[in-house]
Design a protein that fits this description.
about 375 residues, alpha/beta, Spore Coat Polysaccharide Biosynthesis Protein SpsA, Chain A, 60s Ribosomal Protein L30, Chain: A, eight-stranded mixed beta sheet, five-stranded mixed beta sheet, binds magnesium ion
């Protein structure tokens, strides 16, 4: 095997906010890791790709890239340097001639940068893409004042992928376990390996802040937006609770229906299917089909989420209005948002749940049943058929 790409994705860094490590965040509708890995899989001079993941990341990894043609992942260590060494040691069986080591958090790497690194490896054992320093570089005195201006003529900002002769960089890493070094080029230099500097690219940014994520997203162009609406009604029957957005709410009646009669999730499911132009809930889950009797409506909503993902899209926003005279929904609204978010795998901040009465008018006003209407906004970056 000539060239293997090692993608370092073991970091748990989340300066972007939220619980999800940045390599699993969505970037223009796809997980960051999937975009990064796909660039290397598609590159004609890369023979195989392996990802180094964190010890708790297997489920996220499978969701993000489980269907792609990759070497099995390996679990990294406590630092980037340890993860790099563990990744290199895991390739002893393949023993490639060259290895490219790349940060998962650089999903916009142009294939030309990969080419320049591989070209340099034809006659040198190490290569790293760099950018010149364009700003004037000041040295501070530690108290917030400038002392002198540093000559920037031979200063460079290092990017990845960095490329190496496999056996040499493996030995360099194994010899550097007693030191903390910031990148693989530093590990190589410490072992006396020459590292040629090749031209990087300004679009090859490392995602660190929310601003970086937005900048990277812009490089994929404007998404296509789709909006769908849904409406549903269920009649009250004997009982002591209703289920709305998966939340059991005590009431003087139950709701009658073939499934669990969750009018909220039925309206949301139809709104999503409407935005996809993909039929309606009754077509995918016919009431005449005994399989769906008393079904938890989470099944319908999760199915709609799967259809969105299969079409290359993501849920940008959902807005639900539940219409009834009683029960009072305000105390349950947050739980309804959270259950919906968890079922769809969408941040709760993208989901709105509202409630209204009809001032005693009409069938909801007379307390005969509950109605729900919903709007779904979906985003697609690849464009829909
Ligand atoms: Mg219904």
């Amino acid at each position: 095997m000539d060239t293997v790409a090692l993608i370092l994705a073991a970091g748990s860094g989340s300066r972007l906010g939220g619980e999800t490590p940045k390599q699993f965040r969505l970037l223009a509708g796809q997980p960051v890791l999937r975009r990064t890995v796909s660039t290397f899989i598609r590159h004609p001079r890369v023979d195989a790709v392996r990802v180094v993941i964190g010890s708790n990341d297997d489920a996220d990894y499978q969701r993000a890239v489980g269907d792609l043609s990759l070497l099995p992942p390996v679990v990294g260590g406590a630092s980037r340097q340890q993860s790099g060494r563990i990744g290199l040691e895991s390739l002893m069986e393949q023993e490639p001639r060259h290895v490219l080591i790349h940060d998962a958090a650089r999903p916009c790497v142009p294939s030309e940068v990969i080419d320049r690194v591989l070209d340099a490896l034809q006659d040198t054992p190490g290569a790293a893409p760099v950018l010149p320093m364009t700003d004037t570089i000041k040295r501070g005195d530690g108290r917030g004042f400038a002392t002198d201006t540093v000559d920037r003529g031979d200063l460079w900002r290092a990017q990845t992928p960095q490329g190496f002769e496999y056996r040499q960089i493996l030995a360099a890493h194994q010899a550097a376990t007693d030191r903390e070094l910031t990148d693989d080029a530093a590990v190589a230099s410490a072992a006396g390996m020459p590292v040629r500097l090749v031209q990087g690219d300004v679009v090859n940014i490392k995602l660190t802040t929310m601003d970086d994520l937005r900048r990277a997203e812009q490089s994929f162009g404007y998404p296509e937006m789709r909006i769908g609406n849904g409406f549903d009604v269920h009649r009250f029957c004997a009982g002591d609770q209703v289920t709305l957005c998966g939340v059991a709410i005590p009431h003087t009646h139950g709701l009658s229906g073939h499934s669990d009669a969750d009018a909220g999730w039925h309206a949301l499911t139809d709104a999503i299917l409407g935005a996809l132009c993909d039929g309606d809930i009754g077509e995918h889950f016919p009431p005449g089909d005994g399989r769906w009797r008393n079904t938890d409506s989470a099944v319908f909503l999760a199915d709609a989420a799967k259809r969105v993902a299969a079409a290359g899209g993501e849920v940008a926003h959902l807005d639900l209005t539940v219409i009834c005279q009683a029960p009072k929904l305000a105390p349950h609204r947050q739980a309804m948002r959270e259950r919906t978010a968890a079922t769809l795998g969408v941040p709760v901040g993208r989901i709105s749940v509202k409630a209204t009465t009809t001032e005693g008018l009409g069938f909801t006003g007379r307390g005969e049943g509950i109605a729900a209407q919903a709007t779904a906004t979906l985003r697609f970056y690849q464009g829909l058929k």
